[in-house]
């Protein structure tokens, strides 16, 4: 199992990302966390992620989960063409709903556990890997799920890590998250996690968490 979970894109660890991917090659881009955005904004979001991946030598292609609603077998066939997947930020609840509607939660789970695919996600793409989305409503609006996806929001994550991720934390002088002043949205998420007893880890935009060979490492 290989996971690269960051606050913002590669953080300060692009070399580790490339190494974890096993080198450059085809990479699927999942941008469904942006599905509640206006079409032009969503399109720009895809372009903004495809460009950096291409400059690194990858061959990115969008896999839009809306094309696979109720067709998990077709999604599995599509993802089998890639050795890595890149899941961008946006609304974590919308992303979780689209995972559920397309069967991506099960399909990705099988591919990741079998080490057939490296999963890289940032912001919402990282947060959805927690066991629970409790506290994320301090930053993301679950009310966007029903008009965008036609289903109620889900509060369970995919459970590939056993803690919640709090992205976009303000850095202290040493580059680690500033526990005294993490940032407004991060502070609300932290308070929600504390009040419900959910373990969490804070990430600045330079940091990432790597899960590989059953070891979890904070970079």
TrEMBL record:
<protein>
    <submittedName>
        <fullName>Peptidase</fullName>
    </submittedName>
</protein>
<dbReference type="GO" id="GO:0006508">
    <property type="term" value="P:proteolysis"/>
</dbReference>
<comment type="similarity">
    <text>Belongs to the peptidase S51 family.</text>
</comment>
<keyword id="KW-0645">Protease</keyword>
<keyword id="KW-0378">Hydrolase</keyword>
<dbReference type="InterPro" id="IPR005320">
    <property type="entry name" value="Peptidase_S51"/>
</dbReference>
<dbReference type="GO" id="GO:0008236">
    <property type="term" value="F:serine-type peptidase activity"/>
</dbReference>
<keyword id="KW-0720">Serine protease</keyword>
<dbReference type="InterPro" id="IPR029062">
    <property type="entry name" value="Class_I_gatase-like"/>
</dbReference>
<dbReference type="Pfam" id="PF03575">
    <property type="entry name" value="Peptidase_S51"/>
</dbReference>
């Amino acid at each position: 199992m290989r996971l690269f979970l960051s606050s913002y894109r590669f953080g300060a660890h692009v070399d580790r990302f490339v190494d974890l991917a096993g080198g450059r090659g085809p990479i699927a881009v999942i941008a469904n966390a942006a599905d509640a955005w206006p079409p032009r904004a969503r399109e720009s979001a895809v372009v903004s992620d495809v460009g950096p991946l291409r400059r690194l030598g990858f061959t990115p292609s969008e896999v839009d989960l809306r094309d696979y609603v109720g067709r998990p077998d077709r999604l599995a066939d599509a993802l089998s063409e890639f050795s890595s997947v890149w899941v961008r930020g946006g609304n974590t609840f919308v992303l979780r709903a689209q995972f559920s509607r397309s069967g991506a939660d099960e399909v990705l789970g099988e591919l990741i556990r079998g080490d057939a695919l490296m999963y890289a996600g940032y912001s919402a793409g990282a947060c959805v890997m927690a066991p629970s989305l409790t506290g994320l409503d301090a930053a993301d609006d679950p009310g966007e799920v029903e008009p965008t996806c036609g289903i109620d929001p889900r509060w369970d994550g995919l459970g590939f890590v056993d803690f919640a991720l709090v992205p976009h934390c303000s850095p202290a002088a040493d580059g680690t998250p500033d526990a005294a002043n993490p940032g407004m949205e991060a502070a609300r998420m932290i308070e929600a996690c504390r009040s419900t007893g959910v373990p969490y880890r804070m990430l600045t935009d330079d940091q990432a968490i790597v899960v590989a060979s059953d070891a979890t490492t904070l970079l």
